[in-house]
Amino acid sequence: MSCGAFAFKDALVAEIARRGLQDEALVVATGCNGFCERGPILLVHPDGVFYQRLSSADVPLLVEEHLVKGRPVPRLMYVPPEGGLPVPKMADIEFFKHQRLIVLRNRGRIDPEKIEEYIAYDGYEGASKALGRMTPEEIVAEVSEAGLRGRGGAGFPTGRKWDLCRREPGSPKYLICNGDEGDPGAFMDRSVLEADPHAVLEGMIIGAKAIGAARGFIYIRDEYPLAVSRIGIALGQAREMGLLGRDILGTGFDFDLEIVRGAGAFVSGEETALIASIEGQRAYPRQRPPYPAQSGLWGRPTVINNVETWANVPSIIRRGAAWFSSLGTETSKGTKIFSLVGKINNTGLVEVPMGIRLRDIVYAVGGGIPQGRDFKAVQIGGPSGGCIPKALLDLPIDYESLTQAGAMMGSGGMIVMDEDTCMVDIALYFLRFTQEESCGKCSPCRIGTRQMAEILARITAGEGSLEDLEKLEALAATVKRGSLCGLGQTAPNPVLSTLRYFRDEYLAHIVDRVCPAGVCKSLIRFTIDPEKCVGCLLCLKACPVKAISGERKKVHVIDQDACIRCGACLVACPAKVRAVIKHTGGKAGASREGATAPKDA
Amino acid sequence: MNKSDRAGVARRGHAAPSLKTSSLSPERAAARIVVRKYGGQTRAVIQILQDLQERLRWLAPEALEAVALELKMPPAHVYSVATFYKSFSLAPRGRHICTVCMGTACHVRGGATVLEHFERKLGLRAGETSRDREVTLERVNCLGACALAPLAVIDGQYHGQMSEAKADKVLEPILRAGGPAPDAGSGPEDGEAP
């Protein structure tokens, strides 16, 4: 969508109309297909041919060749990153082969703004079954037996949460959908809300019947305007069809939903903070227990689940607990959506069965690391999570094994890192994030994260000492123990997990004053090899601070005092010249040239 | 609080507030329209401030006070909410908004360097607005478009795989339209005519 899909769609519709093909070809604008990096994407049915990275300029050729003459266009097809022939069919592309779609089953298939298309693919069948033929106890039992656990972070069993709330005497009861997807690097909730909004609505209708709620709220972060608009359209259509409001489907059951937009506070993803935000307060978390299931919105029993959790519910009710629990591992059932981003070839959203090995996600689905670089780690679980190193690539992905490895399922963001990523810098990045987002209620979190960030900044500047590592560990323990909510309790995880698996990188920064990955600016410098420089002026022009001097055909020199170590010269220097050298520290010879050029070029 | 404000509060005690907004300050008129949209519910204060910011571009003290009056809520509460959440801007924002994403995916692909380049090019630090109120530079934690990393958004247009050279290109129209003068060190090359 962000890469110009709307313009492409308009051009395609116009071209089809111009050719008089509107009765033979129908253009369906679907939600995210998952293979985000390849957008805009076009899938031509019934042949299932997959076109990618399209632009409006490709439209006439595409229509002429494929639609009129029936000859698919290889030039616009997907070519695997390792090279080879174009792959015409989507089902044959590695990225899609290993996926198992439950939550994302409608992606790339239906127009999310049309309820009829959702219904055509068994939509609202689960709701009609739950409302018409099941008691609340039966619904809760089905979800419990399915083994569904919260997809937003801690993985609490959904059925148990519903049961707690159902048994509470208080009334009215409320439902909340947590769409405040704040973890940087995770965007599956946005995609579900945008690509299949009715799945979330249907899940909530079923949940409402299970706990006896008449009202619910969908809380969506403000940075997702398209999700807000699509959910709004879906709500209107569902009301019109009698799927929301009074006497739903003639069963006598009343339930309605309302959208609440977040306002850019990471902490409001925490359930008690989110409840405060819906009430029009600052998003401060509060002590638990009482849990929201006992005392939530306006002090009433409230069930709060994340977007992906709700979107799992319709399929569980429709196809049954046994079917759902046949997927996954002993403790983690079903599938999980991961956003596979960072230093990976196939960037995008992937839905895979729980228990899949990390190696399969990175190499089979993700297609490995670009430019032949070495895999270093995957960061899972956002600011609450941790980094999983290469040695644990065969780890099965489920709630327990991730926690044991020092990471966390979180919302499912997977950021792949290669040898050019500095783990100390990553720890600093996350600590700066949590420090900025700490609401300030608990001093250990407010002050502790700041102290930790300052120590890390010192280490990345090459001014750290060995005692700093002990201080970091002591502070981490205090912050974890002394914080009320998940934000503070998990904030030290990025530091602890990198200290656990990448202590040598910390030591390199502290003892040798070297950043092995060549990231930390105080510990790197750039020079120009006078033997190789051809005097082409390119680096000189690229330098944003004019730190490079020289003339055409004469060797250029970088003024080390003026240089801001941005690396623009390294990028600008032609691959066949490679005169700019990046030094990763004080040690002689500790340098690597051409960090942007492929290794195997 | 001036006289007409008091009259407004008193009137609403009996009947719905007048929809005639011509005699009100622009902030008060906008606040009244938005508050009505949410049925005057105090719990909607966050949504009300969002809608108001959309209309007024930023939340001036007058706007916050107008919301407090319309909702019959202590101004302190409106301020507490407006200062807590990041999407509210209590300082003027520019006509053009440049946002650089600082999500993790953007970070590992060089987002920090991109932000620094924007700062140099625009002569602004993240969070600042140029003195002529033409351009605001903002950073955001994650826009959820990680496949496009590193990402910058200029006036609602997403620009992925951002680099220094690409940034120069997308910022050119803004800078040419008489935006903030870049500081001497980072100006475009002399004689770089198209």
Oligomer: heterodimer
- Judged by helices, strands and strand pairing, the structural class of chain B is alpha+beta
Helix content of chain B: 40-55%
Low-confidence stretches of chain B: 1-15, 181-194
> Strand tally of chain A, please?
17
Percent strand of chain A equals 5-15%
- What is the overall number of helices of chain B? 8
Largest sheet of chain A at a glance?
A: 5 strands, mixed
What is the overall pLDDT average of chain A?
Answer: 92
Q: Please report the two chains with the greatest interface, counting residues with C-beta closer than 8 angstroms to the partner's C-beta.
A: A-B, 58 and 46 residues
What does this 3D model show about the protein?
The complex is a heterodimer of chains A (601) and B (194). Chain A has 23 helices and 17 strands. Chain A is α/β, with parallel strands linked by helices and 601 residues long. In chain A, the strands form five sheets. Chain A has a five-stranded mixed sheet, with helices on both faces. In chain A, α5 crosses α12, α6 runs antiparallel to α7 and α8 (188-195) packs parallel to α10 (225-240). Residues 587-601 of chain A have low confidence and may be disordered. With 194 residues, chain B is of the alpha+beta class. Chain B is 44% helix and 9% strand. Chain B has helices spanning 3-12, 26-37, 45-56, 61-71, 75-84, 104-108, 111-122, 164-176; strands at residues 96-101, 135-140, 152-154, 157-159. Chain B has a four-stranded mixed sheet with strand order 2-1-3-4, with helices on one face. In chain B, β3 and β4 (157-159) form a beta hairpin. Chain B is elongated, with a radius of gyration of 21 Å. Chains A and B meet through β8, β12 and α16 of A and α3, α5, α6 and α7 of B.
SSE map:
The complex is a heterodimer of chains A (601) and B (194).
Chain A: H1 5-18, E1 42-44, E2 49-51, H2 59-68, H3 94-97, H4 115-120, H5 125-133, H6 136-146, H7 158-167, E3 174-179, H8 188-195, H9 197-211, E4 215-220, H10 225-240, E5 245-248, E6 253-261, H11 271-278, E7 302-306, H12 307-319, H13 321-325, E8 335-342, E9 348-353, H14 358-365, E10 375-380, E11 386-389, H15 399-404, E12 413-418, H16 423-437, H17 443-460, H18 466-481, H19 486-490, H20 493-501, H21 503-512, E13 525-528, H22 538-542, E14 548-549, E15 557-558, H23 568-572, E16 580-583, E17 591-593
Parallel strand pairs in A: 3-4, 3-7, 4-6, 8-12
Antiparallel strand pairs in A: 1-2, 5-6, 8-9, 10-11, 10-12, 13-16, 14-15, 16-17
Helix pairs in contact in A: 5-9, 5-12, 6-7, 6-9, 8-9, 8-10, 9-12, 16-17, 17-18, 18-20
Chain B: H1 3-12, H2 26-37, H3 45-56, H4 61-71, H5 75-84, E1 96-101, H6 104-108, H7 111-122, E2 135-140, E3 152-154, E4 157-159, H8 164-176
Parallel strand pairs in B: 1-2
Antiparallel strand pairs in B: 1-3, 3-4
